[in-house]
Amino acid sequence: MGSDHLLFNGVPLKLIFQHGAKDELIQDQDAGEVLIRGTDKRGIKELLRRWFLKESSAYAVRKVSELAPLLGVRPSRVDVREIKSWGYCTRRGRLSFSWQLIALPERLREYVVAHELAHLAEFNHSSEFRRRLEAVCPDFRERERELNLSVPYDRLGPTKWNRRRARRGGVTGPLPMIRSTEPTTTRSGESPFMMIRRSSS
Questions:
Q1: DSSP readout, 172-200?
Q2: Global confidence as pTM
C-alpha cells in the first residue's frame, strides 16, 4: 500500500502499511517504524487518529498534573480535541489541547502545557503572566519561537481557517505529519494529518 512518514515526539517515523483481516497498529520507535494493518485507507486513518488521541491525552494529563502545583493553579477539566491551535484555556478553568500535540518534541509540548496553565492565573499576556511562565519554563521565549514555525490542522484536512492563516502568515511550505509517497489527497489536493511551517522571517 506504499509508505508514509509521520512525526511523533518530533521524530519522523516510517509507516508500513499491510492489508489485514483486522485493524492493528504496532509501534517500534527504536526502529523508527509503525506497522499498520487494515482493510482499507479509512481504517488506517482512524487507527492513526486514535493512536494520536490516546498518546496526546496521556501526555497532557500527566504534564498538567506535574506543572499545575508549581504554578499554583488547578484546572477544572483537561481534554484533547480537534482544535485550531496547540492549546487554549477558558475562564472557567478548562484546558484543551490539540490531538496532534504528541507530534511535537517534548520541549515544545511542555511549553504548550505550561503556557495554558499560566493563563489560569493570568488570563492575558502581561508581564505577570510571563513571570509565571518563566518560573517553570525559563527559556519560554525560545520555545515559543520554535513552536510558531508549526501550526496544527484542526481536522483531517484543510479548513477555511487554515487557508486564511496560511495567507496571513507567509507560509513557505508544508511540514507534514504524514508525507505520502503515494498521497491520499483531500479535495484541495493537500494530504491529511498536516502541520504548516510558517516563515521565520
A1: EEEEESEEESS----TTS--SSEEEEEP-
A2: 0.76
Cα–Cα distance between 71 and 82 in angstroms, integer? Answer: 26
Share of the chain above pLDDT 90, in %: 49
Which single residue is written with the C-alpha cell 475562564?
Answer: 91
For residue 50, give its domain range: 3-198
Residue entry with cell 485493524: 23
Going by C-alpha positions, the residue among 109, 91, 89, 93 that lies closest to residue 101 is 109
Q: How many domains does the chain have?
A: 1
CB 119 within 8 A of CB 89: yes
Q: What is the CATH number of the domain that holds 88?
A: 3.30.2010.10
